[in-house]
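Example record used in the benchmark description.
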Amino acid sequence: MNKRARRGIWLVALVIVLAVALAAGWYWTQQIETPLGEAGQAGALPEPVIRESKVQPGEQVLVVAGQWRALREATVRTHSAGQIATWNVQDGAIVEEGDLLGQMALGDLQARRGQAQARVNIARHQARTLRQLVAGGYEPQERLTAAEAELESAQAELASAEQAMELMRIRAPMGGRVSILVESGVDVPEGTDVAHVVDRDPLQAVLRVEGKHAARLNAGALARLDLPGVGTVEGRVMSVSKTTGQKDGVRAEIEIPNPDHLQPAGSSVEIRTPL
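Model output (structure tokens):
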């Protein structure tokens, strides 16, 4: 083999090595940058362990990592276009269902209601007077019938005005801790998300256990949870069900009393349940 042929072989080999190196580099880059799916994230959680309870010496507990979640939440939307005139509650306040959170600008609705109320007052007075006169034979029945029809019409107008005003009030759809999404003084269209209410009482923790530890988790069992930013709290295992595609795995839901609707600082919790 002459010198030129050997040089060509070396060049081809060098090109092949570079191509393989580039392909390997691309593969590992893709492996690192591709976001983990649900299975990948679940695999990153610490494995369940059994250890002696720090609260009850001699008692064995199963320690599992899980995720907390609110039991209910709801978005508050405007029923009509207009300006957010004022908020009656502070951001982060605890509210009850039906509480008045805020008020949209009423415009001429207040005057409209006042006029309707005045009409009702006059019609009611006339109807009351005519009932007495008709009973005494001083006025015909027809006048009383017309007066009562006027009163009914006036009351319908008042109800319509009050309904329109109620649509301008922003109320809590349920109890919980409220977050204000839009500042007062801002004009918004109908259907705008202006507040969010989260019900965290009770707080719910969800965990998945696989393998030999799955059979150790039973509904009704006591569970102690370490919530970041809150501390150690006690709850009960409310339900246990098999996970989809996992013959020896279970999904458990634990509820923890949380009357102050506290929000844990992180998304994970450590659950300790007696065995």
